[in-house]
Amino acid sequence: MGAFKNTIAVFFTIFIFSNFIVFGFLKGILPIAPIYSLIGILVITLPIALTSENFEPLINNKLTAWLFFYILIAIAYGIYGYFSGIDLIYLQEKVTEILKISITILITLFLVNSKEQLRLVVKTLTIFICIGVLFIFLDVFNPLMFSDLIGRGSGMYLNANYAATMLLMGLIFIKDRIPDKLFFLLLVVAGAGIVATFSRFGIFFYLIYLVYIFRNSFKSIMLLLFLFFFLTTLFLKYVESILPSFVNIDELIFDRFSFLGFGNETTSEDFSADQRSELFILAIEDFLKSPFLGGGLGRHLSQALSEYDFQLAHNTYIGLLVDYGFLGISFVPLLLYSIYSNRPGNRDSRFFIFVVLILINGFFSHNLLDHYGFVFFYALFAAEFYFDTKEELFKEVVVQK
Question: What are the residue ranges spanned by the domains of the chain?
Answer without folding.
Answer: 2-400
